[in-house]
Structures are given as structure tokens and as C-alpha cells.
Amino acid sequence: MLSIARRQINSRAVRSASIWAAVAQGPPDAILGVTEAFKADKDPKKINLGVGAYRDENGKPYVLPSVKKAEEIMAAAMGDKEYLPITGDAGFTKAAAKLAYGADSAPIVDGRIAVTQSISGTGALRIGGAFLARHYPHSKTIYLPVPSWGNHTPIFRDSGLEVKGYRYFDKKTVGLDFNGLIEDLKNAPERSIVLLHACAHNPTGVDPTQEQWKQISDVVKASGYEKKLFPFFDMAYQGFASGSTLRDAFAVRYFVEQGHQVALSQSFAKNMGLYGERVGAFSLTTSSPEEKARVDSQLKIVIRPMYSNPPLHGARIAGTILNDTQLYAQWEAEVKGMADRIISMRDALYNKLTHDLNTPGEWGHIKSQIGMFSFTGLKPEQTKALAEKAHIYMTGDGRISMAGLNAHNIGYFAEED
Amino acid sequence: MANRAQQLLSHIKMSTEEHAQIWSNVPLAPEDSIFKLTAAYKADPFPQKVNLGVGAYRDDNNKPWVLPVVRKATHILINDLGRDHEYLPITGLPEYTSAAGKLIFGLQSAALKEGRVTSVQTISGTGANHLGALFLSRFYQWNGPPTIYLSNPTWANHHAIFKNVGIEPKDHPYFEAKTVGLDFVGFTDTVKAAPARSIFLLHACAHNPTGVDPTMEQWAELANLFLEKGHYAFFDCAYQGFASGDLEQDIKAVRHFEERGVPMLVCQSFAKNAGLYSERIGALHVVGGAKDEATRVKSQLSVLQRSEISNPPGFGARLIGLILNDPVLFDEWKVDIKVMAHRIIDMRYQLHAKLTNELKTPGNWDHIIKQIGMFSFTGLNPTQVKAVVEKAHIYMTGNGRISMAGLNSGNIAYVAESIDKAVRGTL
């Protein structure tokens, strides 16, 4: 039947072999690749201090009870699976903005925050980068702290922004190079975009104090209108850093109070343990509800050709928790529980190194740093050796995830370190 | 003194003028046209109003339908004590992507057996289209400026997706108004005339928005031409199973192209056939020439995915992974798919019968039963569409496209009568 139309030209061997022949092997991801290597390791004493996912006292993933409860409520409600709007679940985005900015924040009260659901923090940063590249009129350059989360650079570069750095981490003190930071921000070209880690700096764990944030705000604002910088906050650890969602939002809220217009990326991967469900939000403070509507319409134009609309499940969980008084309170306690365990691991590691093992060097930074990550100060060769000889995995920059430590492995880690 | 105070105040707090500077020039983007249609429908108080713009399945009571197998799988997942919310790998849940690939290519597929297929989980069909387009924009050996041929008409978002990554869309003839069918000659003429190694987007089945699909003979002829010209097939498969009711039947064109060795990729969506619109579950499958190629392609797709979403969402993948890999659930899914597909086919036959036999509406209405899938190009002209929307409160897009899912036993008589009147000019 098809014999006339079907000339048997099967070029499989010749043609399709050539199409992708020139595609080079891409590099393994610097962070996610660590877990791959860890999984392949057969040594029973192996420890994964790579990826930033919380682990409980037994080294197991922790599903928050409030999350489980929210899921059960959702299952019982037997909701449908209809498409969300492009900017996502309104119940979630409204609550997320309130959590970040505070219910009495002027832009919240005035209804002038443009907020969209995003594919977790990465997606929020990407939407923000693309929006700024298209619509921020004053600059196409974003300044990242040095160092910053490894994925920031490709996200912003692929969004169409030029990526530069400002001094942040001081290797000598294993702390904040505050003077360097201030100097670099002062010298940045007017109206450049500056990325600020709202709390629990990734990868160093080194945060400015509240006093230092005030000074940073002044510099970002600057003494003349012309020299203002545009603050883009990345808040991936609200609640997870200090144990208090209020305290961890200080920088964002202070800036807004001071009259800055900001961009904000939020993630609920860590503070709700919703990692793989990809729950996040991107927001911009605007000058009026009318402006918010315009900005909102353009956020949709960014999102629609990438993935149309975001996934429901995780956002609905987060929204359910944030909008229910009891669940909210329960969640806040659970976040504090995670933060407390991490803080106690910091204390325990410090004690082991300083008192038990008398390890040479100053280890105070382990306690003063905040959040999931700690910069050990180890060099790439040393981290490589730790992986190969001691089967302890961390990223090449010497960053460890405190969440990967627990009572069972902390002794082994401290000794090998 | 007052001036100095003013000066200080303006230094301390930013004036509204300064606020207004940053986003003041952001233009208001036009609202999505389908969204506007739905909004107009919702606002309409007319008791007999009908929404034929909706691109999501509705049951006979005009309600969204969560598939029974999905409810069952959800229950299993929620109650699985071993379940967590950990990050998926960058390319997605392996048991899902592997099964999704088998669904497309079939167990006999040479490409699958030889490990030449790279499968990546994506944010539903849009995500797959976007990632596929982005990959091509970076790695395809373009013959001239990056271009893709799209059917005229095609899904509205296709144009935006390709433009967004720097690939210029070009239309090729597809729909023929006078036959309310396929302009195959116009289509193949473009295929022949296009520069060698051009990329064409092909709807695997249930063409959106026309419902007009090539026959298998026509697909075979297209494959011949593609091989002759070295063209690349960018398949968009959003309705496998949903078109005819049969998963194997609906994927024949894709498998034929793979058998013939046409260079290709396939975008897959479970939004419609599993009714999982909001969980954004899809996949991109890139067919390579050799196994090591597939590994390299995977590594590059990972790099692209990482800087946009890092890794894809878990819930939908776990649901579909469960359904595809469990023989009992898979069979139940096939039954649920048939429920949807058959209701739609039934509505086609009923509408056709009413127009042709009962009302004897002027014109030939056979295209309603020849077309396939959720959508149908009625053949109504813009004037008639306007009348139907404004006077009969039946909402459809300006090109005369209707969603068969919006038809049900409660409204089909009214819709048929309204179409009849519009055609006669008596609405």
C-alpha cells in the first residue's frame, strides 16, 4: 500500500550519526556532581557534605510534619488539576510576599508588589534576571558577592546580564570583608544591579550584622540620586538561618522601609523541606498598583514561552501552611528545630576541633557563620584528598553542608579534617 | 532653613519621583487571548452560555475530570511512608523519563534499544518545546540563520517559544479553508523548497488548533522528503492516546520517522492524556546517532536546565512514573484515556449528525468527524464567529476553533442550532 510513496531511504547510519556528533561533553555540575560521586562511593564511612539538603540526626531526609499535614488536607479536598495562572497560585504568592516583606510593609499594604510563583529559587532568579535584562533601564550588569552560589553566574549570564563581583569573603579572617564590600559597592557604576544574600550566605555562611546591613543600605542608596544601586535579594533560607523568619528577613524589610525598590527571589526548598517540588516566588516592589499591573503583565511574557505556568502541588502545600494559623505556628517551630540542630552541630564541631582534638588554627568561624553552609577554608586539593582518601564529600571550594553532620559522623569528620 | 530640611529629607527617603523612574516605562503587555475569552465567558450572566475556548477536558457535566487512576496513584503516593521531597536529578526522575520514552518510541524501537535516546523531564509540553528549541539554538548546525517552519496555523505559544531563544518562526501552508482540511500540496511544496537541513515542527497527532492530521501515507511521504532534504523533525506530542483513544495508534507518525532514521526530537506532555495540567509533567526526547552522543547531549541539556530551573518538579513525575511502571495502573490509565477520547469522538458524531441530518445546515460538515482530538476548526468565518459569541453566548476563538471538550449532552443541541442560525445569517 505504501510501496509507491515509500522509497526505502533509510539513512540512519549516515545522517542521524552526524547531527550531534560535534556536541561536546558538558561539565558535571560543581554542586550536584558531588552527590553523584558520593552515591558511587562504596565506603561505609562515607559522608556527604555536598548538596544543601537538610538531614536529621540519623542522616535522613526530613519531611516536615506540617508539610505532611498540608498534603493530607489537600488530598481530602480532592481538588482538580486545572492549569494555574501564569504567575501561579494566588493563595501562595500572596502569603509568600507577606512572609518576606511583613504584613504591614508599605508596598504590601498599598498592593504594589508584583509577585509570581516560580520554579523554586533558581526559577525566581532566572525570571528576575530575564525581567531585569529586558526592562531595567539603567544597567545590564549585576554584581555578585565573591564567592556566591555557583549557579548564580550561569543564571544571570543566560538571562542576558553581565556578571561582575564585589568583595565579600575575607580568607584571612574567614569572615566578612566589610570594607572591601563597601568600597566595591561605592565604586560600582551608577544604577548597577547588586545581588544580596538576605541571610545565611551561600557558600560562606558569613552574614553582615544588622548594623552592617544599615550601612550597606546607605551605600546602595548613596548620597546622590545618581549613584543608586538596584538591590536584588536572594532569600533562600528565611527561618532556616537563625530559626526566626522575622529575624532572617531583617535586611529585606529594612531596605524596603528605607525606601529602596527591590527585587526578591524566595525559595521554600529548605525552610519547608520542599526541595524537589520546586516552590519559590519572585517579586518586585513597584510605585503603584497601576505600575504593578504593567510589571505583572511583563513577568507573564517572560514565563509563558519558558513553561507556561508553574506546578501546583508544592505551592499549594506552602500556601496551605502559610494561610492556616495552626499549621503556620507548627511550621515555624519545625523550621526553628532544623535551625537549632544545625547550630548545635556547629557548636559540637567547634568543640571537637578546639577542645577534643586541639586542631591547629582558629575555628571560631564555624560557630559565627550561619545557616546550612560553612566555609572550612580548605583548598581544592585538600577537598579532593578528603573525597578520595577519607570519603568525605564537599564542594571544591571547601564548602560543607552542616546539615550533613550528625552525632554519628561528626567525630569521623573532625578527625579527618 | 526649610530648603535645607527638604534637602535632607530627600536624601534620607526616596521621593516618589525616584520610585517612578525604575519601572515607569514598562509597557502593559496584551492579555493572553484565550484568557480574555475565558474571562468574558465567566463574566457573562447568560444562562445558556457555553465555553468552547477551553483547552482542558470537561466531563459531560462540564466539570474538570481528575482521572480515577490519578486519584488512586495520588493516594498511594501520599501514603507511602518512604516518600520524601528530595531534589530530583537535573534531568528528572529516571523511572519516569525511561517509561515516558518507551511510551513514545515503543519497546521495539531501535533508538531505545541502542541507547541513542536522551530523555529529560521537563515542565510539561511547553518546557519540552522550550528546552528543545534552546538546545537547537545552541547546538544545531544551522544552514543559514536559525529558523523553524511552523504549520499555519499552529498552537499560539509556538511562535513565542522559538522567538524567545532566537529562532525565527516561518509559516508553512497547512490548513486549507476551502476543504476545511489539509493543504498537503502546499505543505510538501514548502518542505521541498526549504533549504537543506531545515527544521520543521510537526504535531504528532491531533493538530492544535485545526484537528486536521496527515494520513499515514502522507506521513510516509513527508518522511521521504525529510530524508532527501536532511530536514530535522521537531515533534510536539501533546495528545498521545487522547486523539483516537489508543496510545499506540496516536504515536504511529513519530515511530515511523524514528524507524526511517529521520533526525528528530519529541516533546511530550501528560497534561491532557493524564489530566495533570497543573502538575506540569512532560519530557524531551532527543534521538541521536550513537550511544555516546546521547551521553554528551544529556550533559548539555543538563547545563541548560540547571541555569533555568536546576531540576524539575517531583510530584507529577512520581505520579506518572507510578502509573507507567505498574501494569495494573497502566491498564486503568488506558481505560480512563478511552473515556475522555470516546466522549469527545461522540460529541463530534453528535454535532455532525445534528448539522447534517437534523438541521440540514448549508455546507458540508464532514470535517467535524474527520478531524481528531480536542479541537476542531469549524469553518465558520469571522462574521459568523462574532455572531455566535455575541448573540448566542457561545465562546470560541476568532478563527472558528472550538474545543470539543466544552460540548456535552446538555448544550450540544443549543450549539448546533446556534451554528445553524449563524450560517443562515438568522442569529
Quickly describe the structure.
Chain A is of the alpha/beta class and 417 residues long. Chain A has helices at residues 12-19, 32-40, 65-77, 90-101, 106-109, 120-135, 152-159, 178-187, 210-221, 245-248, 250-257, 289-307, 313-322, 325-356, 364-368, 380-390, 410-416, and strands at residues 47-48, 113-119, 141-146, 162-167, 169-170, 175-176, 193-197, 230-235, 263-267, 279-285, 373-375, 392-393, 399-401.
Describe the SSE topology.
The complex is a heterodimer of chains A (417) and B (427).
Chain A: H1 12-19, H2 32-40, E1 47-48, H3 65-77, H4 90-101, H5 106-109, E2 113-119, H6 120-135, E3 141-146, H7 152-159, E4 162-167, E5 169-170, E6 175-176, H8 178-187, E7 193-197, H9 210-221, E8 230-235, H10 245-248, H11 250-257, E9 263-267, E10 279-285, H12 289-307, H13 313-322, H14 325-356, H15 364-368, E11 373-375, H16 380-390, E12 392-393, E13 399-401, H17 410-416
Parallel strand pairs in A: 1-12, 3-4, 3-7, 7-8, 8-9
Antiparallel strand pairs in A: 2-10, 5-6, 9-10, 11-13
Helix pairs in contact in A: 3-13, 3-14, 4-13, 6-7, 8-9, 9-11, 14-17
Chain B: H1 2-12, H2 16-23, H3 33-43, E1 50-51, H4 68-78, H5 94-105, H6 110-113, E2 117-123, H7 124-139, E3 147-152, H8 156-164, E4 168-173, E5 175-176, E6 181-182, H9 184-193, E7 199-203, H10 216-229, E8 232-237, H11 247-250, H12 252-260, E9 264-269, E10 281-287, H13 291-306, H14 314-325, H15 327-358, H16 367-370, E11 375-377, H17 382-390, E12 394-395, E13 401-403, H18 412-424
Parallel strand pairs in B: 1-12, 3-4, 7-8, 8-9
Antiparallel strand pairs in B: 2-10, 5-6, 9-10, 11-13
Helix pairs in contact in B: 4-14, 4-15, 5-14, 7-8, 9-10, 10-12, 14-15, 15-18, 17-18
